[in-house]
Amino acid sequence: MRRNRIDPKSFDLITPHSDRGYKVPPNRRAAIGLSAWHEIWSDARYGMRSLTRNRSFAAVTVLSLALSTGMATAMFSLVHAVLFDVYPYADSGRTVNPIVFDPLHPEDWDRFVLTRSQFRTYRSSAVFEDVFGMVKYTVQVHELDGEQQAWLVALTANAAQFLKVRPLIGRGLQASDGDYGDQAPNIAVLGYKFWLKQFGGDASVLGRKLTFTSDYPKPKTVSVTIVGVMPERFALGGTPDFYVPLSQVPFPNIHLIALAKLRHGVTAAQASAAVDAMVHDFAAQNPQLYPKKFQTRLQPLIKGFTERSKFIHSLPVLFVAVTILLLIGCANCSILLLARGIRRTHEFALRAAIGASPFRMVRQLLVESLVISLLGSLFGIALSYFLARLPLQFADNLFPSESVIRVDLSVLAFSLAAAMVTGMLFGLWPALRFARPEIAQTLQKSYRRTVTRGGQASLRRLMGGQIALTLVLLTVAGAAVASFVRLTRIHLGYNPANMTLVLCDYDAADAKTWTERNARNERLQDALAAVPGVVSAAMADDIPPGNENGRQSTFEIVGDPFSQAANTRLANVGANYFSNLGIPIVTGRAWTKEEGHLGIPLAVVNQAFVRRYSPKRSILGRTIRLPSLGNPAVLYGAVRSQAFTVPEVQVVGVTADAINDGLGKAVAPNVYINGTVLLYAGIPMLVRTRSDPSQYTGALRHALHAAGAREIYISSFSLEEMVKRDETWRRQQLTAVLFGIFAAVALALALVGLYSVVAYVVAQRTEEFGIRLALGATRGQIFWLVLRSNVGVIVSSAAIGFILSLVVRHQSEQWLEGSTLSPALMASTAVVLALVAIAACLSPARRAAMTPPNEVLHAE
């Protein structure tokens, strides 16, 4: 027999506990403050053992919390990524984007560009700590699978010091790589997405040589060495394919986009005032690059996204929705814990009878619920890694290019904190409910029959709250999904299939007169039309479905004083534009090819124009005066035809309406002008092909080069894809998907909670049903007895949910643009939810009706 090493009566007694070592005895643990921690650990182990014994209960509760906390974590990741952690650049909060805007139309703004001398002047301003510039242009890369078009961004030599973003592999651009005009080795740094797409993330790409061909000012081919790859969040210039130093820009007279970092203590408003006079001097030097009247604003980077993004307005309702989902998940766990606690009433009475205090039992139940919440949060975090990526997969163009939605340390901290809080929330009520059992009454009964009216009432209150909140979520989700479905069925008014956008420039010095430019344009269009597989090509400077930033103009219908200072959209299009897009001419005609060749000022208006500005009088033959077409500062170097002596056009036809102001908006009044009236040193064209336009990219580019085109851009998206990449489409699609997921999970949780309550109550009343059957009750009466006791709760909860939906209706419609929470939708959703909830009660009710009375009475 082993002996104690010291006096057993000593305070510092250490007794052998097992062959594995020694255990601090209870009096010692209490003296040094370890007793409470030992008991908590024991409660946690007991909770884990009870979960393994009740696997179905554990699976449902953990899954309920995993789904709700996982989605809450994913939403927090989304908000964090697009509002608080958007840009990876150093001091991005002090980095400003220079823009100019018309005071009469402040929503229409854009970044201004600077010549090299203007850039040096701008950079010397005392309000800036540093300024760097960039130029974006296209090249053709020859070594990839077929000749491919790629976007390049050329950066000034100080860009790396300004941004301070470390490359993923290799090196980034350095000051030694040079500025414009410097002699330096030809190198390139890959963008992350291009690296993954073209090279499969291969790190051995470093040192590989690629050959670029740029079209402007004339074709020039250079060989570059790949020296690095930038990380995923480095997307300066809108996710370009390559970054090169400014020393490699092949064309003269570059115009730089400048980003500036404010000095400490200088606000954006102060800096705007300081550089305003300077920018107006720049505008006097290059009036074609600025509006006629404008103001300057230095806008923080994040505001460029938040001020234009309409999806930001949907974030509050999405956050509210996921909060409701979290409450539903917590309510579901409370229902399950409460039902399980009622089954353990006999156990709690025994514990109280042998001396357990209410505090001790509350602590045990809370520890058990925290174990469940921690398990649920771990699974929820794993789920959130998938859910957090959904927004970018469905709508990448809704967010800044630098946005990477991920679960980082702050999100993990939020998830764990939410798990602890929810654990306390859903575990506290059951814990307090069972901490003071009625010992004598409980010990006299079988625990299977211990189900009080108070216990049933608590379960049904939680169940009712779940149903009401679920209805609110289902109603908003139904409105979001219905809105997106309507959008997918919208009549565009044109046929976007197998059509793509082609832009090409030519040297203005080679075509200074209108006659020379018109001949060049016709040669380019004929070259495209001659490509095998091309159906037609038409000039078009306004590409449907358009948006609110399209070209606008005031106008006047000559002889109609009521139309003065009215506004319309303008589009310069070719004679075959309408047949190319499939837009029918309703009245009159379009101009002929011969009239286009002569540059005769003719126009076609759409039906929306007629309805608004000439509803009672035929518009055909009338003259529209367009003052903006007579303003040289607005024409940006265009030359006019000899026939266009005054800024007036004659209407010769009316077209059917076609979406031109963005999806989800009414068709705006539109004036389509004979495109040869004003000619630029370049031409935008819509080209329809017999099959996928991407198959014809090489042939189109070759034909344009042969016809004398200089810089060529062929869209990587067809017009059909552009419709689906429209901001309204992507926003409503993402909202519908997210709300659909939220609503489906909420409905599943609510039905699981309802089924659990009904099944539990039926199990507790088995003896009662057996006795009723033995005394002559029919099985149909038992079935109706169970069903009736739950139908009232379901219907009343659905009514409360309907009222809550009415309360949030107005705010939800403001947050979810295009969605309408009509009373009919809310009522139909309430009816459907009530029917589905009643259906969830059928199986337990049938089980109650099939109770064998002989077995029950024999057991009693």
Describe this structure in words.
By secondary structure, the protein is α+β, with helices and mostly antiparallel strands. 48% of the residues lie in helices and 18% in strands. It has 27 helices and 27 strands. Strands 6-7-12-9-11-10 form a six-stranded mixed beta barrel. It has a six-stranded mixed β-barrel with strand order 17-18-24-20-23-21. The protein has a four-stranded antiparallel beta sheet with strand order 16-26-15-27. The longest helix has 38 residues, at 727-764. Mean pLDDT is 80; it is low at 1-22 and 446-451.
What secondary-structure arrangement, pairings included, does this model have?
Blueprint: E1 15-18, E2 21-23, H1 26-31, H2 35-53, H3 55-84, E3 95-102, E4 105-111, E5 113-114, H4 116-123, E6 128-141, E7 148-155, H5 159-163, E8 169-170, E9 187-190, H6 192-199, E10 209-214, E11 220-229, E12 242-245, E13 256-262, H7 268-285, E14 295-300, H8 301-306, H9 315-343, H10 345-353, H11 358-387, H12 390-394, H13 409-434, H14 439-443, H15 453-488, E15 499-505, H16 514-529, E16 534-539, E17 552-557, E18 566-573, H17 577-581, E19 585-588, H18 593-598, E20 602-606, H19 607-613, E21 623-625, H20 632-635, E22 639-640, E23 648-655, E24 670-674, E25 678-679, E26 682-689, H21 697-706, E27 712-718, H22 719-724, H23 727-764, H24 766-774, H25 779-815, H26 823-849, H27 853-859
Parallel strand pairs: 7-12, 9-11, 18-24, 20-23
Antiparallel strand pairs: 1-2, 3-4, 3-13, 3-14, 5-13, 6-7, 6-10, 6-13, 8-11, 9-12, 10-11, 15-26, 15-27, 16-26, 17-18, 17-21, 19-23, 20-24, 21-23, 22-25
